[in-house]
């Protein structure tokens, strides 16, 4: 055991692989049911490597104050063992692979608090289903191995810092795996490539255009770009361009002088001035009116803004990150978005992959939302059945991560409405997710010309074309509303319709009164 741990310490391994090897070898060494390595982040523990827990465990966050066993482990420098009849609730109830969805039987549990450079780093926990597994010899062994475990963690941290220094000097490329992704949950190849690209461009000062469907988390990635940039100590100012009334958009972005318009009783700086020295995040930038687009272009070109009603321009030093769920190239072609502004904003475009292209990340994200809802609803344990997990994988997620969050929250509330016992392990079945009702219908079968073998009066009767079109439109509207939280204006934009036309269509289709 010691030899293999030492070999990993001197081998150049990705962070995730080194830590995964660590927990897998510890599980084999102690012949136990599950091992988890958890990193302390403020008031919660984030699993960074697990072996023997269910697939969504890596996405969960365990708030220390809600889990007395984890709090007890962190409070000590040595090994903490919990007797098999301990009354303290186990954070992994329902999450052990061998007993998924069941209360943990009488079992042994122990853990050790981990420290790096004299500061608390996190904890390692071990669960065994056989009473007596963690005897005095096992506890002494874990205490001895604690030094090697902390060394493995320290090694991964040093490697990440070295990669970051090389990137700052421009003499190496950095992959995102060695950094702490914070609240960006995912281990798929698609998300790995995205994090790597963000790491590379973050400190370049180039304007960045984040491209992606509604709900993929563009704001989250904008925050990451700012956090990794040289402007991290300055403000990140978020502007939702879709929420700016056209009459006030110019004033909001660039400010106004006293008396510039009715009601302007004093001078007011705009969002550009608030972001001076830092980063301005223009969310849903495709919604900006053309008149404001022209003024934004001038600012990007010469670094100057002019308050509405003011005589003189002001210099600002702002990095712009923009985001859109629209195809701006099409809007350039139809004249609703300026071509010159598009080219200014898209110096470095970064597409964010939709959830349906992120593989098993859907389960990690579901784990995150399950734990949040477990804590919010005061439940002992909240998990997904196997059928529910399969349903999450099958579904196409037009609303992406935001839709997944709503689906999990809604399913948890439905389970509560059916009178579940809060002290039991609550399992969400596939029917609670209600994903079948959100799926787009299969296209109707193509009509087959009558032949001698299949006379016309014997063919399958197809619905009239108008009925088929209406059914398709109803499903498209329902999906758009579900993806946008029943916001009709956003749903209209996603469908490429004027809001008033969408309301008329919905009434004709019987979706509105």
Question: Care to describe what's here?
Answer:
- Helix content is 42%, strand content 15%.
- The protein is of the alpha/beta class and 513 residues long.
- A six-stranded antiparallel β-sheet has the order 3-2-1-6-5-4, with helices on both faces. A five-stranded parallel β-sheet has the order 8-9-12-7-13. It has a two-stranded antiparallel sheet with strand order 10-11.
- Strand 5 (108-116) and strand 6 (119-128) form a beta hairpin.
- Helix 1 packs parallel to helix 4 and helix 5 (189-202) crosses helix 6.
- Residues 167-182 and 440-462 have low confidence and may be disordered.
Write the layout of secondary structure elements.
Elements: H1 2-9, H2 15-30, E1 34-41, E2 44-51, E3 62-63, H3 68-74, E4 79-82, E5 108-116, E6 119-128, H4 136-169, H5 189-202, E7 208-211, H6 218-227, E8 236-240, H7 246-254, H8 271-274, E9 279-283, H9 290-302, E10 304-305, E11 314-315, E12 319-324, H10 328-333, H11 339-345, E13 348-351, H12 361-377, E14 381-384, H13 386-394, H14 400-417, E15 425-428, H15 430-433, H16 465-483, H17 488-495, H18 499-508
Parallel strand pairs: 7-12, 7-13, 8-9, 9-12, 14-15
Antiparallel strand pairs: 1-2, 1-6, 2-3, 4-5, 5-6, 10-11
Helix pairs in contact: 1-4, 2-4, 5-6, 12-14, 16-17, 17-18
């Amino acid at each position: 055991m010691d030899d293999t741990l030492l070999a990993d310490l001197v081998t150049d391994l990705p962070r995730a692989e080194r830590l995964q090897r660590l927990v897998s070898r510890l599980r084999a060494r102690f012949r136990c049911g599950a091992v988890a390595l958890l990193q302390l982040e403020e008031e919660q523990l984030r699993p960074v490597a697990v072996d023997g827990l269910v697939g969504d465990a890596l996405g969960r966050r365990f708030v220390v104050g809600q889990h007395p066993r984890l709090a007890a482990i962190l409070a000590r420098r040595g090994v903490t063992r919990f007797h098999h009849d301990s009354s303290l609730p186990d954070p992994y109830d329902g999450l052990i692979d061998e007993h998924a969805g069941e209360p943990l039987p009488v079992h042994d549990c122990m853990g050790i608090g981990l420290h790096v450079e004299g500061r608390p780093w996190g904890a390692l926990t071990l669960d065994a289903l056989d009473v007596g597994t963690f005897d005095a010899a096992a506890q002494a062994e874990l205490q001895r191995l604690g030094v090697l475990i902390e060394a493995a963690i320290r090694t991964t941290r040093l490697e990440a810092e070295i990669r970051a220094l090389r990137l700052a000097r421009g003499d190496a490329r950095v992959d995102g795996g060695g950094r702490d992704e914070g609240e960006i949950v995912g281990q798929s190849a698609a998300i790995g490539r995205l994090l790597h690209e963000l790491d590379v461009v973050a400190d370049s000062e180039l304007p960045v255009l984040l491209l992606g469907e509604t709900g993929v988390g563009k704001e989250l990635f904008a925050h990451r770009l700012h956090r990794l940039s040289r402007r991290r100590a300055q403000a990140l100012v978020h502007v939702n361009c879709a929420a700016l009334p056209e009459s006030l958009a110019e004033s909001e972005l660039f400010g106004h002088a006293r008396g510039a318009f009715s009601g302007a009783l004093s001078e007011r700086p705009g969002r550009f001035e608030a972001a001076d020295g830092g980063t301005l995040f223009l969310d849903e930038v495709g919604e900006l009116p053309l008149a404001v687009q022209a003024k934004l272009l001038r600012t990007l070109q010469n670094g100057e803004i002019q308050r509405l009603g003011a005589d003189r321009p002001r210099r600002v030093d702002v990095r712009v990150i923009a985001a859109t769920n629209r195809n701006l190239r099409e809007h350039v072609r139809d004249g609703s978005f300026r071509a010159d502004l598009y080219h200014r904003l898209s110096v470095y475009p970064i597409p964010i992959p939709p959830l349906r292209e992120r593989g098993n990340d859907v389960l990690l994200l579901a784990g995150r939302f399950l734990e949040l809802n477990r804590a919010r609803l005061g439940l002992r344990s909240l998990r997904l059945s196997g059928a529910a997990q399969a349903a999450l994988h099958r579904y196409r997620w037009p609303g992406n991560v935001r839709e997944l969050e709503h689906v999990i929250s809604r399913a948890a509330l439905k389970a509560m409405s059916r009178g579940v016992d809060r002290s039991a392990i609550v399992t969400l079945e596939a029917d609670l997710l209600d994903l079948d009702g959100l799926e787009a219908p299969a296209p109707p079968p193509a009509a087959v010309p009558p032949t001698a073998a299949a006379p016309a009066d014997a063919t399958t009767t197809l619905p009239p074309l108008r009925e088929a079109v209406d059914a398709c439109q109803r499903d498209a509207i329902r999906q758009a509303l579900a993806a946008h939280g029943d916001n009709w204006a956003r749903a209209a934009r996603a469908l490429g319709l004027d809001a008033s036309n969408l309301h008329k269509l919905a009434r004709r289709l019987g979706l509105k009164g």
